[in-house]
Amino acid sequence: MRSPPRATTERGDRPMTVAVSIEGIDKRFQAFQALRSVSLDIQPGEFVALLGPSGSGKTTLLRLIAGLEQADAGRVLFGDVDTRDLSLRDRRIGFVFQHYALFKTMTVAENIAFGLRSRPRAERPDGAEIKRRVEALLELVQLPGLERRYPSQLSGGQRQRIALARALAIEPQVLLLDEPFGALDARIRKDLRAWLRDLHSRTGHTTVFVTHDQEEALELADRVAILHEGRLEQVGTPDDVYDHPATPFVCEFLGEANRLPVKIVGSQAFLDDRPVLGGLTQNQGGPAALYVRPHHLKLVDDVPLSIPGIVEELRRTGPLRRAEIAVSGLAKRLDLDLTSQVAPAIGERVRVKITHATAFATA
Ligand SMILES: Nc1ncnc2c1ncn2[C@@H]1O[C@H](COP(=O)(O)OP(=O)(O)O)[C@@H](O)[C@H]1O
Ligand SMILES: [Mg+2]
């Protein structure tokens, strides 16, 4: 379990984190509808990943929350304040973009201090206070001592950590991150995920993290919101959306799945007139597609509810071992994860049991 979101105060009783309520947002660009009736409630201090393929409307929704785009319908609230009543400055948004390079001609310290120095005089901290805050932020993003470096003297991962420090410098009430690790190598992305999760647990900002990488979203977020063609298809914890996808799109987007054409009668699914899974609830009955993740297939000895097949291929990708199993009456082979099972031999007759699946009616 992740620790519950906490509201912190830094300056007086001005809360650093707020709830964000997105209510019935429509957004068109000329004739193109980029967002359709999008509603989403984000708790104070919550870390939400906005996940979807390229073009699904993620950046548009983030820019709407930031006040950089206007909605055609609906509204965004920070706490109980309609953001249309707030100036861009009063929204206090920390924004990190994928390709938004740091200011090249400024040092790291100048980059981080930028938002503070551009405040109106009355709200601007003095030089010593800015220096202290820059140091504290470099400490926070675990890059102490880099004040005098220029962006060109940093690695890609360091640059994005400095960009995050710059976003945090203005004491944002909401942190918006648009594919901040998108341009980095896979290995560095993984390290930065753990780093960001840890940073969030220490600072507790309400955070919306945009990504098209399902692994990144599932690993980082308290809840994942899945966008598809401008619509929110499902919002839930990583376990919810992965194990109980609301739509075939969500199921396929979040990871591999075998798709079995079945007939549902009562609470049972039948493949080729053979019962293969019981205990199904919330189904209408009739023809359905049963989606089964490769690790939800087990090799078994007993016959009840198992599917007979022949091992056709064994594969290995990195640490994962897979078996492909041919089943009579099924056009596609079953893809089965062998990571925690004894590997069969090619040509072996086996029985396969479904341990978990989601059914979607097909007619
Ligand atoms: N300013 C704009 N003018 C016209 N179309 C736009 C504009 N911004 C975004 N779009 C379109 O809206 C859709 C969603 O874009 P975007 O929110 O950037 O998607 P994502 O971030 O999920 O890749 C895309 O088809 C894009 O071409
Ligand atoms: Mg985008």
Main traits of this protein?
363 residues, Rossmann fold, OB fold (Dihydrolipoamide Acetyltransferase, E2P), binds adenosine-5'-diphosphate, binds magnesium ion, AAA+_ATPase, ATP binding, translocase
Structural description of this entry:
The chain has 363 residues and is of the alpha+beta class. The protein folds into 2 domains: 9-249, 3-Layer(aba) Sandwich (Rossmann fold); 256-361, OB fold (Dihydrolipoamide Acetyltransferase, E2P), CATH 2.40.50. The protein is built from 9 helices and 22 strands. The protein has helices spanning 58-66, 88-91, 108-117, 127-140, 156-169, 186-203, 214-220, 238-243, 248-254, and strands at 9-11, 14-15, 20-29, 32-42, 47-51, 73-78, 81-82, 93-96, 174-178, 206-211, 223-228, 231-236, 258-265, 268-271, 274-277, 286-292, 297-300, 307-317, 320-326, 334-337, 349-354, 358-361. The strands form 5 sheets. A 6-stranded mixed β-sheet has the order 8-9-10-5-11-12, sandwiched between helices. A 5-stranded antiparallel β-sheet has the order 15-14-13-16-22, with no helix packed on it. A 5-stranded antiparallel β-sheet has the order 17-21-18-19-20, with no helix packed on it. Helix 3 (108-117) runs parallel beside helix 5 (156-169). The two termini are 39 Å apart. Mean pLDDT is 91; it is low at 1-15. Magnesium ion binds at residues 58-59.
